[in-house]
Design a protein that fits this description.
Layout (H helix, E strand, L loop, with lengths): L1 E6 L5 H17 L3 H4 L1 E6 L10 H8 L23 E4 L2 H10 L7 E3 H5 L16 H21 L1
Parallel strand pairs: 1-2, 1-3, 3-4
Helix pairs in contact: 1-6, 3-6
Length: 153
């Protein structure tokens, strides 16, 4: 299964989601899952090559995940048309992606929606510009969703 995580600039939420999912797949499904599952991320308004924010790198470092080499990918530069599931951090992102790629609408969800959260709780708020504690809370929220998603794949 090929999974794509999407946020605004691919330097916080989707970058952390990609890194955590890759880490979880290695730990919970085994090394073979890396070939069976491929994980990507991109941003609707990303500038190709941007680094993850310092706080995103730090929040992942605290989980023993190295995000320092992550580089942002703009959605137009991504392989979005080749993935099986597209997971957006907010409903607004989901709607934007559906408008950009209407033929892919049946495989576009929010992360929380795909994880089974109720309709009134589908967004993961952007930690950009906030302190490390906000990033930690965001990472925890993403992790909880990914644990549920991992059970599905």
């Amino acid at each position: 299964m090929k999974i794509m995580f999407i946020c605004t600039e691919n330097i916080c939420r989707s970058a952390m989601a990609e890194a955590m999912m890759q880490d979880m797949l290695k730990k919970h499904v085994g090394a073979d899952s890396i070939s069976a599952h491929q994980v990507y991320s991109c941003g609707i308004f990303a500038e190709d090559g941007w680094a993850a924010t310092d706080n995103a790198v730090e929040a992942m470092k605290e989980r023993n995940i190295d995000l320092s080499k992550h580089r942002a990918t703009n959605i137009r530069s991504s392989n979005i048309e080749d993935v099986d599931v597209i997971l957006c951090t907010t409903t607004a992102h989901k709607n934007n992606v559906i408008n950009m790629y209407p033929d892919l609408a049946d495989k576009i969800y929010t992360i929380k929606e795909y994880a089974g959260y109720p309709e009134n709780d589908l967004d993961i708020n952007d930690p950009w510009g906030y302190d490390i504690e906000t990033y930690r809370r965001c990472a925890k929220q993403i992790e909880e969703c990914l644990e549920k998603i991992l059970e599905k794949i």
